[in-house]
Amino acid sequence: MQLSEQEIIRREKLSKLRALGINPYPANLFPVNTTSKQIKDAFEEGKKVVVAGRLMSVRDQGKASFAELQDSEGRIQAYFNRDVICEGEDKTLYNTVFRKLTDLGDFIGVEGELFTTQVGAKCIRVSNFTFLSKTLRPLPLPKTDADGNIYDEFVDPELRYRMRYVDLVVNPQVKDVFMKRTKLFNAMRTFFNNAGYMEVETPILQSIPGGAAARPFITHHNSLDIPLYMRIANELYLKRLIVGGFDGVYEFSKNFRNEGMDRTHNPEFTAMEIYVAYKDYNWMMEFTENLLEYCATQVNGTTEAIFGEHKVNFKSPYARVTMTDAIKQFTGFDITGKTEDEIREAAKGMGIEVDDTMGKGKLIDEIFGEKCEGNFIQPTFITDYPKEMSPLCKSHRDNPELTERFELMVCGKEIANAYSELNDPIDQRERFEAQLKLSERGDDEAGQFIDEDFLRALEYGMPPTSGLGIGMDRLIMFLTNNPSIQEVLFFPQMRPEKKAPQLELEAEEKLIVELLQKNENTMDLAELKTQAALSGKKWDKAMKALAQHGLTKVAVNGESKIVELTM
């Protein structure tokens, strides 16, 4: 491992701390009794406090220093005075440990009392501090010049997503997004629980990937010697619970789809699905708009949210537009009664790329996606989808060519999908078989399996039911004004990190390293040179290269020199 100069220095400080008898990674509890926010919200002059956090800045003034500690709720200023911390003659704790061996990013705990500085800042007068964790890598902290200009900010998206732990430390505003994400989940749970519905859990590993049209991740169960699929949706299991007698069930589901990655799609994502017996999609529309109005208010304190250049209002009620009317409005083409070939030709005439593997439903979906959905900015229910697009949805009560389905569009994106659920087992089998034929034609998003157990469950009877699915990641994107899904996931999927090229050592360098390793990584310089038995030129070249690579260092110990292996 090739270390930077800063990393080498920090490791040296680590050794010096241990030499002073200080454990840089103590195991014992540190008795924190407050936080930075609690101190500021209920400031009391002279109050004794115990806090802990990262050291984020230091202004060294010799016998005294001001520092900033960052904990989970913000930052608080701390005042370190040498003679207060070190009352006796021994000033090591301040002069050496704090001033010389402590770095930005280190975790420390402080004890002291609160006071107000001459400029009115709330501060802790430190009476004692404890080392809690030594950091071996420097944080990429931004720098501000005298004019207030900020430099070296940690803003590269790939680095931020890959090292979210660093992002959260140096960009505190990022934490606010995830705090709101948790508020959203809590609000939705509260809304459902107050309505009397029960949160459940269903399998992630499934023998048949059902409930959606998507490519699954495939794994293998060794003991059973069978393939298993990572869940693409939890719909069919939740419906089984409705068959079993529950009136309403919901689940926050981790789903996995082996498809592309972009700013709005991640292979692993979170969806919420809820199913309520004896309801239909008209009831579910009203339920959904009331739900989202409540959630927006709980997350942001208002029904309004800014997303890019748009101000979106989640106040109910929402507009309702049929799929047929939407396509007619934005393309002039009426899909009513049209054949698959007619729709294909119309799509080609609109400049939409289509192929022969696409069935009627997929063609309509492409037309709507390309020409219509981007026009719906305010929350809008798109209703009454063609039957070919909705294999799990009940036929429309007034038009058997349509289904009782809606999608909720916001800023041109779908965030919710709901049905009057199909509960006719014979009709359901025919829909599954039609999807299977599309799959055999080459449509890789069509259903490739018939879930016989689910059909068996329907044959035992499922009451009229309405179901709703919401993409939680996309919803929180809208509520926090983040155009990228990676911004609302702690650890989004990333391409493999490019590894730094392996350091290739010359034969002479390898020889010296091996000798040091045989002697517990430390040797007298003269003895090492004797055992290496290299010519003067090769010795000098090898030792210089090892030092440049950060693999060795030479220290003076009395009259001798000691070589230490630092890798």
Secondary structure tally: strands: 23
Number of structural units classed as domains: 3
Number of DSSP helical runs: 18
CATH level 1 class label of the largest domain? Alpha Beta
Low-confidence stretches: none
Oligomer: single chain
Tell me the strand order in the biggest sheet. Answer: 8-12-13-20-19-18-17-16
Biggest β-sheet description: 8 strands, mixed
Distance between the termini: 6 Å
Q: In the CATH hierarchy, what is the superfamily of the largest domain?
A: Bira Bifunctional Protein, Domain 2
Return the CATH architecture of the largest domain: 2-Layer Sandwich
Cα-atom Rg, whole angstroms? Answer: 32 Å
Structural class: alpha+beta
Shape: elongated
Strand content: 15-25%
Question: What's the pLDDT, averaged over the residues?
Answer: 93
Task: Tag the structure with descriptive keywords.
Arc Repressor Mutant, subunit A; eight-stranded mixed beta sheet; five-stranded mixed barrel; 18 helices; elongated; OB fold (Dihydrolipoamide Acetyltransferase, E2P); BirA Bifunctional Protein, domain 2; 567 residues
